[in-house]
Model the fold of this input.
Amino acid sequence: MNNLKLIVLDNIKEVGEKVNLKLKELKGEDESYLLKITESRFSNGEGKVKIEDTVRKKDIYLLADIGNYGITYNMHGFTHHMAPDEHFQDIKRTISALSGYSEQVTVIMPLLYQSRQHKRKGKESSDCAIALQELQSLGVDHIVTFDAHDPTISNAIPNLPFENIYPTNTILEDLLKTEDLNDILVISPDMGATERARYFAEMLDTNVGVFYKRRDLTKVINGKNPIIEHTYMGPSVKDKDILVVDDMIASGGSMLEVAERLKKDGAKKIYFIATFSLFTEGINEFKTAYQNNYFDKLYTTNLSYIPDEFKEQEWHHTVDCSEDIARIINALHNYESLKPLFNKKEKILTLRKEKKT
Done:
């Protein structure tokens, strides 16, 4: 009897249901892998999780999106939007509700909790490291995330398996099937995204360029030193189709400034690629930039919450990664290597060649 079970929190329900269907296809079975749970809230904001089915000796995969601000509940008479801290607490609640009866627990958290607070400067909190250690202390056996802001955060839990998956192949497959691209150049909008841009360039057998953000270190605005200038280093962008890649978009200001500069320097088409489009602000700036022809489209994934308002924009394209998650779960359950799932350079190059012809 198959002991694989999938726990999907409310914050990632749509993706979780797709993962369940893909798992059924992969395994050729009709029975659902979804484990029934109940998430509830008291009117003062406290919550609880109850497991409704048996978990004894089950291989549990817990799927959660800590970035889903579209989940709301009534607290003290007003509508409250859930924050990442609350979503992470629900992950811990669910693990504790399992009561140690399961065979093993794998947490799949596509957007890694507190991933941008991954290292300390002075007397700062070390939130991401502490969170990972909390999961370890609760008895989690495996952690899976996507495109971590800094993969070396795994050093906080050296004895716990930590998988950092890049959705690069899935995004590129979708991009190459949808768009008509010719002379491609990959651009990193800052020095921090250089390694990611280089990986995209290697997959496409093309060149990479990078922008350096020169900041005013004498000022702090909204918690950051403001950018004075973007300095470009790399091959000419004239008449090139550009892919500007990063792990996430918060306000997206840097990407838009880079795109405007690239257009002035003669770039043809410009595509933004970001695993997570958080849009904490800046949606109107993207609308204006698109109208001004500074970029052609944004490719992002469904690995974290995207409001319908953004999905409906003609410049916004969502890449479905639910099959990737299903294949990861299936491979881990069968004790198989994950490497073959994401070694698709030959397929990417073939797609590109077919488009050219």
In short: Residues 13-27 form the longest helix (15 residues). The CA atoms of residues 136 and 271 lie 39 Å apart.
